[in-house]
Amino acid sequence: MHSDRSFTLKPLPALLAVLLLTPLAAQADSTTSLGTVQAEAGGSGNGAVSAATQQSAPYQALTQGSLTATQPQSIISQNYIDENAAPTANYTDIINIAPSVFSITPNGAGGMETHTTSIRGLQDGQFNVTFDGIPFGDSNDFTHHSTSYFMPQDIRSIVVDRGPGTASTIGPATFGGTVAIYTRNPSETAGLTAYGSLGSFGTHLEGARFDTGVMQNWGGASAVIDYKRFNTDGYLTDARLKRQNVYFKLLKPLGSDTVLSLVAMYNTLHQNVSPGATLAQIQQYGPTFGLNNGPTSQAFYGYNYDNIETDFEYIGLKHQGDGWTLDNKLYTYDYTHHGWNGFDPNGETPNGTVLGSPGGLSMPNDVPGERMLMAYRSIGDILKLTNDLGPGMLGYGAWYDHQGNNRNQYEIDMSQGGAFNYNVITTGPNAPLEAANANPPGTYIDRLMYDSLDSFQPYVQYAWKITPSLTLTPGVKYAWFRRTLDAVQNQGQVQGALNYSKSWGKALGSVDLHYLIQKNWSAYVQVAQGFLAPNLNVFYVANPADNSVNPETTMNYQVGTTWRSHDLALSGDVYYIDFNNLALKVKGPVGQNIWINDGGAIYKGVEGEGTYYVGGGISVYANGSINRAYDKQTGLTLPEAPNATAAAGLMYNSGPWYASLITKYIGKRYGNPGESDPLPAFALTDLNVSYGLHDLPYWVKRGKVSLQVHNLFDKTGIADLAGSTQYASTNLYYTIPGRAEMVNVSLGF
After folding, report:
1. Distance from CA of residue 174 to its chain's centroid?
2. What share of the chain is helix, strand, coil (3-state, %, to 5)?
3. Which of 97, 268, 555, 716 maximizes the CB count within 10 A of its CB?
4. At residue 92, what are phi and psi to the nearest 5 degrees?
5. Interior CA angle at 742 toward 737 and 746, to 5°?
6. Strands 116-119 and 498-518
7. Contacts of 278 (CB under 8 A, 6+ apart)
């Protein structure tokens, strides 16, 4: 058995390795300027922007397409992040501006993990999220933790790819697309930047960034280290969050055609988390209801909290030779989550515990709760190569990842300092349900397990230049993955231990045609297969061998175009996605739960985004989508799939001034299958104003002050379905966080 193994490594050794490798890497010769290296590494430094560039549609665009894209995508620039995103924002808050994207963070920007992120109606766990091309996330269901990794100060840009991409697009969930996050590079000039924010809901952030600049005595290397601390009381009552984050990045030229990169990040988080509120609670206590300060309540904030540690590191090597390139990243990341919660914070289950053993000491007034652990580490490598071959470019490579995950959950007595609780409910309407979940009857263990996921994806593709303007790119990758589960107590209504493993594999094809009509106008057609590996929950049954589950798959058909000039950045697309092999849990031949593939869904729609530069520093922006996502069998709209999204913005950017007024609209959607829980459409407006300080003391190189007002018109209606209560299955909801003001200041030395 492995359920008691300690797989999670602490981040200190990884961070020390980065620091030790830094001087070793710096000893190599270099004849390349850092500006060239940074361009090869995927971005420029933090230099000033010329007035001509600043006053243009591509620079001021909130999102825009790419002239080289072969599928619909929205690029969110560093300028947008710096000027419009809250300094505390999750990456999900940032991408909310893009077409077809719907994201809700109920406790204010960055104040808790984002509850819902939807792209074309596909949910978190159905699309990839990557950092510098490295996929990350929970292996059990491929979801992501938006408050646990990089913060906005360390993000250079984000690209929202709405589709499975080419064969070289790797990750566990190319099913619904990729949110590609790129980390910020060191500056070419040395300096120290101190920054801070103060805002609504008791929010404050303090940070400092140190850039080494180009170190000629270290062969042209440059590095940055950034530390920040973020605290908030939160929009929801007693839902506090405390976060610390440190980020390090080194770029080192190795000769004229090679660059070494080292990245390390460490994050700690303490948060009090509300599970949502019933309509009755919202009506009684108002839209801010979350937790309370009563130690006799299961909703007491002292019983509902998480302590989370994460780290993320990689060493990358990029080489460009005569007609070929190599890009390799060796990486690791960790997520360690200790969590506590009241058994039923929404008040439908009375207090009462049993201590010592089944039928032991009854404590009718004690507060029941739960304690859990989720601790995993991934280790992997991504190798990508290209070669000039004939009239085109051959691309090939592979991705491998291993993640091992310890998970447990125990029923405890909060009033007795976490003593084990044997069967909370013995009488009343919920007793049969509680008894059904006892595994075996009388135990305090909900789950005690170790699971792992190995993923391997080799690929090959060929970009055939039919003409200088027309490129056809067919490709194929083979997606292989293997799950193992070694459980003393398996999760769910399954009694006892389980030791099981299973492998799946599937070849996935893609082909796209890209046409550069003019140097500033392109179009593309794409047909590609997406896939989603079965979640770990297919093992939460009496006998997983009875399952017959293949990966869920999609066939994606997309056509789009992009135009970019000084005054206009415009793109649009039409898509049709045929989703098959829907995984469903059903009753087996002897009454046991099993999983099968059955049915699927259709996703289709039209999307567009554009920015027009009016002149005098003024631009206007708009995006929109009309989306339809429905079940093939019933024709009913899928949950969390808005029927439309839209955004509109007015921007002014000239000299030291920046200002924007931006509105995002989310259309009607449903919280549950069957169109039984309609959620209203809503629109939120943000105001952002910033000014670059001048006439500063000689020892201050630069400065900036800004004011941000989020949800300008203070809308506080229902935002989303949050799930349901433990056993009565009463709907829970999150509301829209109310108006929030934030003042931000930065000074560079």
Report:
1. 14
2. 10, 50, 35
3. 97
4. -70, -35
5. 145
6. unpaired
7. 346, 725, 730, 731, 732, 733
* Sheet strands (E) in 46-124: 73-76, 101-104, 116-119, 122-123
Query: Reduced to 3 states, what is the DSSP secondary structure of residue 39?
Result: helix
* Strand pairing category for 178-183 and 731-735: unpaired
Q: What are phi and psi of 695, to 5 degrees?
A: 55, 40
Distance between CA atoms of residues 483 and 504, nearest Å: 9
Look up residue 280 and give its two tokens: 């009755």
Residues 74 and 61: beta-carbon distance below 8 Å: no
The mean per-residue pLDDT over the stretch 150-173 comes to: 95
Tell me the backbone φ, ψ of residue 59, rounded to 5 degrees: -70, -40
What is the spatial distance between Cα 672 and Cα 561, in angstroms, rounded to a whole number?
35
Q: Cα(412)–Cα(444) distance, rounded to whole angstroms?
A: 7
Which pLDDT belongs to residue 1? 44
Give the span between the Cα atoms of 217 and 213, in whole angstroms. 12
Which SS3 state, helix, strand or coil, does residue 293 take?
coil
CA angle 717, 201, 63 (to 5 degrees): 65
CA-based nearest residue to 67, from 510, 515, 466: 515
Round to whole Å and give the CA distance between 114 and 584.
26
Burial classification of residue 213, based on how many CB atoms lie within 10 Å of its CB (0-12 exposed, 13-18 middle, 19 or more buried): middle
Distance CA(655)–CA(650), nearest Å, equals: 17
Q: How confident is the model at residue 606 (pLDDT cuts 50, 70, 90)?
A: very high
Neighbour count for residue 392 (Cβ, 10 Å): 17
Cis bond before residue 440 (omega within 30° of 0): yes
Q: What are phi and psi of 435, to 5 degrees?
A: -60, -35
Can you tell me whether residue 435 is helix, strand or coil? helix
Contacts of 584 (CB under 8 A, 6+ apart): 595, 596, 597, 598, 599
For the chain, report the end-to-end CA distance as a whole number of angstroms. Answer: 56
Contact 640, 723 (CB under 8 A): no
Q: How many whole angstroms separate alpha carbon 371 and alpha carbon 2? A: 20
The answer to whether 127 and 179 are in contact (CB under 8 A) is yes
Q: Report the candidate in 132, 137, 133 with the shortest Cα–Cα distance to residue 165.
A: 133
Instruction: Using alpha carbons only, give the angle 704, 705, 707 rounded to the nearest 5 degrees.
Output: 145
**DSSP 3-state of 552:** strand
pTM here is 0.91
Q: Which domains does the chain have, with CATH numbers?
A: 11-748 (2.40.170.20)
User: Residue 231 corresponds to which tokens in the numbers above?
Assistant: 């605290």
Quick one: tokens of 561? Answer: 């175009």
CA distance 749 to 747: 7
Q: Quick one: CA dihedral 337, 339, 345, 349, positive or negative? A: positive
387 Cβ contact list (under 8 Å, min separation 6): 323, 324, 393, 394
Looking up tokens 């009488």, which residue turns up? 427
Question: What DSSP string describes 216-248?
Answer: GGGTTBEEEEEEEEEEE--SSTT--EEEEEEEE
Sign of the torsion angle spanned by Cα atoms 114, 116, 117, 123? positive
Q: How far is it, in rounded angstroms, from Cα 568 to Cα 570? A: 6
Element housing 678 (H / E): strand 678-679
Alpha-carbon span 228 to 196, nearest angstrom: 9
Supply the Cα-derived Rg of the chain in whole angstroms: 26
Q: CB atoms < 10 A from the CB of 481, how many? A: 21
Q: What digits encode the pLDDT tens for the residues 697-710?
A: 988 999 999 999 99
What value does the mean pLDDT of the chain take?
88
Res. 8: pLDDT tops 90: no
- One DSSP character per residue, 561-610 reads EEEE-SSEEEEEEEEEEEEE--EEEEE-TTS-EEEEE--EEEEEEEEEEE
Give the number of C-alpha atoms closer than 13 A to the C-alpha of residue 19, restricted to the C-beta side. Answer: 9
The pLDDT value given to residue 232: 98
